[in-house]
Amino acid sequence: MYVCICNNVTDSQIRLAVESGARSLRDVRQSLNVASQCGKCGQCALRIIRDEILSSEADDNTLSSAAA
User: Fold this and answer.
1) Could you count the other beta carbons within 10 Å of the beta carbon of residue 34?
2) pTM of the entire predicted model
3) Residue 25: in which H helix or E strand, if any?
4) CA gyration radius for the chain?
5) 8 A C-beta contact, residue 35 and residue 44
6) Burial of 23 from C-beta contacts in 10 A (0-12 / 13-18 / 19+)
7) Residue 3 contacts by C-beta under 8 Å, 6 or more apart in sequence?
8) Residues 51-66, buried b or exposed e (16+ Cβ, 10 A)?
9) Which is nearest to 45 in space by CA: 60, 32, 59?
10) Residue predicted with more confidence, 62 or 46
11) pLDDT band at 57, cuts 50/70/90?
């Protein structure tokens, strides 16, 4: 789904940026220019970033528990 219409940024691109190390809206803005024009997508992008970080942390915890 398109999150930032101004810069043609999708939720998949945002998720990939987080997987690649982005940890904040500022990080994602630097790599994808999301929320750099009108800013209406900022809250949606932030939710995606937070969800992806939480999902990644949950996956890490699951892997750690399985390995123990």
Assistant:
1) 28
2) 0.86
3) helix 25-32
4) 13
5) no
6) exposed
7) 9, 10, 11, 14, 34, 41, 44, 45, 48
8) ebeeeeeeeeeeeeee
9) 32
10) 46
11) confident
Give the model confidence (pLDDT) of 13-49 as tens digits: 999 999 999 999 999 999 999 999 999 999 999 999 9
The secondary structure element, H or E, covering residue 4 is: strand 2-4
Structural domains in the chain plus CATH codes: 2-63 (1.10.10.1100)
Q: Which two tokens stand for residue 35?
A: 């929320």
**Per-residue pLDDT at 8 exceeds 90:** yes
Q: Which tokens hold the place of 2?
A: 């398109």
